[in-house]
Amino acid sequence: MYDSKPMVSSINTSVAHLSLHNVSKVFPGRSSLLDRVLRRTSKEFVALGNIDLDVAPNTFVSIIGPSGCGKSTLLNIIAGLSQPTTGSVTIHGQSVTAPGPDRGVVFQNYALMPWMTVAENIQFAVETVYPMMAIAERKAIIQDYIALVGLRGAEAKHPHELSGGMKQRVGIARALAINPQILLMDEPFGALDALTRGFLQDEIERIWEQERKTVLLITHSIEEALLLSDQIVMMTRGPAAQIAQVLDVPFPRPRKREELDQYPGYHALKTAMEQHLSYETRAVEESRVRK
Amino acid sequence: MTHDVLQSARPRTKALTLNSNQRALILFVVILLVFLGLWELGTKLKLFLPIMPSASQTISDFWFWISDPFFDNGPNDQGIGLLLMTSLRRVLTGFLLGSAIAIPLGILIGLSEVVSKAVDPFIQILRPVSPLAWLPLGLALMRDSEKTALFVIAITSIWPTLINTKFGVSNVDPTYINVARTLGASRWRTITKVILPAAAPHIVAGLRISLGIAWLVIVAAEILLSGGIGYFVWNEWNNLKITSVITAILIVGLVGLVMDRVFGLLQHWVSFGQRS
User: Fold this and answer.
1) Which residues of chain B does A180 touch, with a Cβ-Cβ cutoff of 8 Å?
2) Which fold has domain B80-271?
3) Whole-prediction pTM
4) Structural domain span for residue A199
5) pLDDT of A70-106, one tens digit each?
6) Global ipTM
7) Which burial class, exposed, middle or buried, applies to B199 when counting CB atoms under 10 A from its CB (0-12, 13-18, 19+)?
8) Which CATH number covers residue A53?
């Protein structure tokens, strides 16, 4: 049964699965004498201000914000691919400093190895994370996840033979097959056309019902966030982007795209998000004009 | 029945329209025939020096050489097939030696910026040197023409492979590396399973260039040393048999073309739709 109450407790952080405390990211500028001679100086850039966020276990959280607000930077820090300038990321109280298979990452540009088939791409992940696993078990896992994302029959295809949507389904299967505690998705459908995107969103909703992982999804799409999330984290524009507000999405699951706008509170949530995003985006555009 | 109808209908509609490949082939044959015709006419009208053979004589000598490629009447009178085998053996052995140095070294300097910067001056100074400049050094060090040939070819083969391998390894798409990092892959596993396959199209492109240059250089090296197709060219020039020299030029070109095609296929085979 779906618990429609907000599951995040910001008081008792030990319950939180994933915790961000005071996380900021500053990209240092270049201003040395040599840089000045070579005319390649750049200003220091504060991408993220102080971010505090607690995510409860088995929650689907979307992060939405205007372009360039540092959403991807935040995800990279959680993935361990990038280090925060200040603050810390903890998973079950354990500090995160490096990438690891407890976090599965779905990349925006799919990041499939072109020389590996669909099955081999997933196998590479499973083999890397579970090197001692028996071959039969490994094969079974690979087959299960290929079936889960609906790619049966395409196991032996190489990525260049797949459509964008199929590629991203491989990306999702690869991330899930290592059984991560947290799934991190960086605008996974950003490069897809609207129809494929909708189809894959439905797939994600269906898969999430089965797997119930803790998920962090970076997105630009209000509908996508409303369809999939338990909570939506709205970020302010950069520089020094911060969390403006966290919205709870109490719709019952499983959710249907067609019925989404009939859930009570849908329009209020949508309007709140639209207002926030259009305000922030306008501010970004205007600040660019002034520069 | 319908099948038959389609079969018979198709050639009728397509008979007069040639695709671009067919038209190119026709043009190729026309250019060849015009060239041979002018050559034949020029010799008939004595427009060239008397040493210049006619086209027909060159073609018949060419046919003599390729119709019996493997006769052996002593070191100075061998069939063109045997001569080619000697040259090919030298090129391939030297090429393998050079590649065995160039690929691992290229990987190393591609992975490490420090090693790359440290080794770069050596590469930059030695790379532009004509391979033949190494020949006296080889003779002095090895006192053996066979080994010297391998030495020269090996050195020739190093540079393009080395530079391409380094480029391929250091320019692997960072998202592939990030995938390996998020999975917690070891450095060794990242290199063997991600970096090398990703760099393979560049490495093979380097090997292809290296082999092409090695094949260019072997003729010159063999003129100065002995044996093989290069020595044949020089020997036949000393015998004033220009038809043999032209035959050798054509055959060297054809063999080079075949080797390049083979590596072209290999390059396609490792690319999987990647930029190559």
Assistant:
1) none
2) MetI-like fold (1.10.3720)
3) 0.84
4) 18-102+180-290
5) 888 999 999 999 999 999 999 988 898 899 999 999 9
6) 0.84
7) buried
8) 3.40.50.300
